[in-house]
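User: Can you fold this complex?
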Amino acid sequence: MNLMYFTERPYRYVPEDELIKNRAYFGLPNTFFDREKGSQLYNEYLDEMVYAEEVGFDAIMLNEHHGTPFCMGAVMNVEAAILARITKKARIILLGNPLPTFKNPLRVAEELATIDCISHGRLVPGWVRGAGSEQIFNNANPAYNREMFNEAHDLILAAWTRPGPFRWEGKHFHYRFINPWVRPYQKPHPPIMIPGVLSPETVVWCAERRYPYLGLGTALPATAELWNLYGEVAAKQGYEAGSENFGYLQHVVVAETEAKAEELGKAHLFGGGQGAFSRPEHTLPPGYNSKEATKRLARTMTAGSGGFLGVSSEQLGRAQGAGEPENLQRVADSTRRRMARGEVTIEEAKQAIYRAYPKAVAGLQIIAGTPKSVIPKLRTILEVLRPGTLGFFQSQGPVSFEDRMTSIRLLGQEVLPAVREIAKELGLVDPFERQPGQRPYTPGTARTQLVSLEALRA
Amino acid sequence: MHMMYFTERPYRDVPEDEVIRNRSFFGVPNSFYDPEVGARYYNEYIDEAIYAEELGFDGIMLNEHHGTPFCMGAVMNVEAAILARVTKKARIVLLGNPLPVLKHPLRMAEELAMIDLISKGRLVPGWVRGAGSEQIFNNANPAYNREYFNEAHDVVIAAWTRPGPFRWEGKHFHYRYINPWVLPYQKPHPPIWIPGVISPETVIWCAEHRYPYIGLGTALHSTVELWNLYQQTAAREGYVAGSENFGYLQQIHVSDTEEKAQEEGKAALFGGGAANFSRPEWTLPPGYNSKEATRRLARQATEYGFLGVTSEKLAESQQGERRDPNEAKGRTRERLMRGEVSIEEAKRKIYAQYQKAQDGLQIIIGTPKTVIPKLKLILEVLRPGVLGLFQAQGPLSREQRMNSIRLMGQEVVPALREIAKGLGIVDPFERAPGSRQYIAGTQLEPLVDLDALKRAPKRDESVRV
Amino acid sequence: MADWTEEVTQVAGSNLAIIKGGTGKPILVLHEELGHPGWLNWHAALAREHTLLIPIQPALGKSAKIDWLRNIHDLALWYSWAFREKDWFPIDVIGFSIGGWIAAEMATINARQFRRMVLVAPMGIKPPEGEIMDIFSITARTALSHSVYDHDATPEYAKLYGGERTPEQFEAFEDARTENTRLAWEPILHNPALPHFLEGVTGLPTHIIWGRQDAIVPVSAAEAYRQALRNTEVKVTIFDHCGHRPEIEKSNEFIKLVREFFA
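Assistant: Here's the predicted assembly.
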C-alpha cells in the first residue's frame, strides 16, 4: 500500500469574504498576497513533508495551480526539487504537471530528469490537462488542450527514452535536435500516475497506457464505475487491472479530540471550498471539453426557468463538477450571484457554506476525527475502491501549523499502521510492489473484482 | 565586496575524445550520460555550495545550459530552489536565465518568486539571451532573440510589480490576465544582475536599466573598454557608475602545493575547454547577432575569399581570435575527421596552451599564496563590486574540489576582502547601483585603474579555456 | 418568413453549408463569431433586392471542420479558394465582428474579389484605445449580453439565435467558440499584420459601421481601420446609443445605409 501525504499548500490568510464574493483566480487580485506569510507558509509546508516522511508516509504528493490562493504550488517542480534533496526515501509524486500549458515541454523533460537524478530515482511524474482556468492563466489555447497534452506527453517520453539527437516535427511542437544531456535516473523512465476527476476519456487513456489512475476525492459510486471501465479497457489491452492500477485521494484531518477535529474539518469549507475554486467561465473555456463531453453536458441540462440563453456555462460548470461535492458547488455558485444582487449578506453566505458540513462528513467527502473514528471510515473506502495508493489530503483553510503537524503525527503513529493492516487483509498491492499492466489477461476468463459496491451499501 | 562561489556543474566523466572530435551539444549524444554518475554529481555540487556558504562566500552563482556535458544546470531553477532551502544566508545568484528560450515568461516569474520566498529574499535573478546553441536546443527563433529577450524581461518585471489582474498584449507574448498569486519576497523586485561576454549592446542595456554587469572571464583590456562604455551611458542616464555596477568571474583552482595545483589545474583544459563548447554553426544561428555585430564580423572575415567565410571563421573572429586559420579549433576538428591529425596530437595541442592560459589570467592556478596577488591585480584593474570564483572544469575529484573551496574560503576570500576594503570597493548591496546622481558636466571618477592595467598581462586570444 | 434555404456543397476540398435567400444581385454575408444568428429583419429587408449568400464557417453547423486551417488568415485564403470555385467573384460583401475581420483579410489577399465591402464592428485590428473583449474567458451568454447597448430598446435581441434555450443551441455556441478559439486565441482576436496589408487595398469602396458604445470591439478601432484603408475610398458611420450590433440596434438606419451603399 502506497500512502501519500498531500497538502495543496494554500495561502491561508486570504480574507474569506473576498473568496466568497469573487472566487479565486482572476477574481481575486494578487494584492492580497503578503510576502512574509507566503514565505513562512512555503517553509512550513516543506517542514510538514519532511515530517510526514519521518512518521512513515511512503510518498509526498504535490499538485500545481497558477494564480490562486488555494494552491501556492504555482510551479510545483520548485518544491519537488527541494524535496528531492531534503527527503531521503519518500517518493515524490506530482499529480500533475499541466502539460498543455508549458509551451516548451522539452524544458519540463529536463527539469523532471534533473529532479529524478537528485532524488536518486524517487520521482513519480503525473500529467494533467490543467483546469480551464490554467489555460487562461497560461494563455494556452483551450481548443488544442487535448492535442497539446498528447503531443507534449509523447515528446517528453521520447526525450527520456530515445537516444539523442533526433528531430521532432509535431503539430504543436518542433525541435531541431532533441538531445537533453540530463536523462532520468529511473529506466526506461520514471513511473507515471495520472490523477483525474471522472473524465472517461482520461480513464480510457490511462488504461491503454497502463498508467495508474488516481481519483481526486471523487464520489465513490461514480469512481467505482470508472474503475470498472478501466478494467474493461485493460482486458481489451490484454492485461488484468488490479489495485496497483488505482489510487484515491481523501480529505483526512485528525486531532486529539472529536471537537477539535470538527473545527479543523470545517476549515476545509473555508471561502466556499472547491465551490470557490474558479468562476465557471474560467473553468470551461471554449474547446476545453471534448465534443462528446460538451454533448453530454448539453443534454444533462434541465429545462428549468426559461429565459433567453438560460443555458449558462455556470450550469455547465456544475454539471461537470459531478465529482465534486455537488451541494457545496451549488451553494457557493448561487450565493455569489445572489450576493452580487444584494439579496444575501456575506454572513448569510457563510452560514450557507458551513451548513453543508454535516452532509460532507456523512458523504465521506471529509473525514475528520480522532484516529479511532477515522480508521473505520478509511476502511470503508479501501473496501469499496480497493486502491493501491491512498493520499491523505490535509485540511485547507485557517488551520495552524501546530494543528497540521499534530494531524500528521497522529496519522503516522496510529492511522497509517492500521491502514496498512487493513490493506494487507484486503490484499491491496501498490504499483511499486506489482507493476501495473504486468498480469496478462486471457480473453473469456473471469476477471477479479476491482471494486465492491456492496461494501458501500454496508 | 560580494564574493561568489561558482561551478558550471559539468558532467566530468564524458569521454574527452568525443568532446574533441564532435564538440558539445548535439555533437555528443546523450547516450554518454550515466544517470548514476549524474545523480552523484548533482548532489556533490549542492554539497559544494553548502560548504562554500559555510566557509564564508556571500553568494552561490548558478548558470544554465541545455544539452551539454559542460553544464548540468539544464534548468538551473531546480538547483536554485534547493539552495533556497538548504542554504541559510548566501545569495543565490542566477547568471542567467535564458529569457528568449522560455516561450512562457510568466511561468518564469512564478518560479523565481517562489524561490525568492522560500529563501526569504536571497535571490538575485539575472537574464541572458542564451548562447546560439540554446536557441537551437529550445527551438527559439534566433532572429527574434533580442525581441524575445526584451519583451520577456518586461513581462517578468510587470508580473512582479504591477498589481494584477492585467492584460498583456505584446508582440511575442500574450496573456489574458496576469495575476500570479505568488509574488517575490524582495520589493519592488529582486535585484537583477546581467552577465555578458563582449556584446556592447548588452552593456548599454544594463547601464540604462542600472543593472550591474558581470564580465564572464573576459580579457581585462576589452573589459575595461566595455565598463567605460557602461559609465558613459550611466552618466547620460544621470547617475554615477561605480564598483557596485560591476562584477567579474574568474576561473581558479587552488591546492596545497604549487605542484599539486599545477597538476590538478590542467583539468580546466579538458576536451578543449570553452573552444569546444559548441560548434560554430550552432553558436551563431542566423539572426542571433545584431546587424552591427554581423557587419563587424563580415569585415573581419572576407579575407578568406568567396564562401570561405565559414561560420567557423565567423565564430572565431567573433571571439577575437586572430591567427593562422590552419590552427583554428574548427580546423582541428575537420582535420581529425579527415584523419590528418590523431586524437593524441589534438590533445597535446590543447594542453600545450596551459601555461599561456595562466599567463593571460584566463585561469588562475596555485596555492593561496600565489593566487592572491593575481586576484589582487584583477581587483586593482577592474575594481568590481562582485567577484565570482569559478571552480575549474574537467576531471577534478570531489576531494580536490572541496579542498580548493576550503583553501579559497579560509585564505583567499579573507585576503581579498582586505584588499577590496583597501581599494574602497563596494558591492551592490552596500550601495544600490544607480543611486548616486550624476551632475552633467562634472568630472567622472575613474572606474578602472589604467596604471594597474599596464601591469596586467595581455591575453593571447587564441587560447580559450 | 422562411424565404431562405440551406444546402451543403462540396467546395475547395471540403463540405460547406451555405444559407441562401432573396433575389437580385448577390451579397456575401460573413457571420459573427457565434455563428449565423438567424434570419433577422435586416436579412429580410436586403433580401428583397439581393440574393444573400451566407456561408457557415467551417466547423460550425453543417460545415465540415478543416483541421489544417490554423488562423483567420488561413480561413480567408480558404474562403477565397472556395468562392472562386463557386464563381462568386467579384461580389459585394458584408462582415460582422469576426466575419468583418475575415472579409478584411480576403480584401488584402485580392481586393478584386469584392465589388464593395461593408465591415460592421470588425475584429482584427488592435484598438488604439481600450481592448477587444476577451469573449473566450466569458460565457456565450455574457458576451451576447454585452453585445447590445440597450436591451430594452432592441426588440430583436430576444430573437438572436432563436432566443430559446436548447441543448442544441448551446452545443452550437460551444462549437463556434471552440473553432474561433482555435483560430484566434492569440494574439487576442486580431492580426498585427492586417493594418499593414490593408494599406495595399485599392479600388474597393468600403463602409465601416460601428456603435459608439460597442463593448466588444471598442469604437476606437474604427479610426484604425479607416487609417489602414487609406488607399481606397472609405466611409465610416458611427451610431450613438449603439453597441456591437448596429444591424439590430439601429436596424432601420442600418438597412437604409447598406441598401444605398450596395445599390
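Residues 302-310, 320-329 of chain B have pLDDT under 50 and may be disordered. Residues 2-74+193-455 of chain B form one domain.
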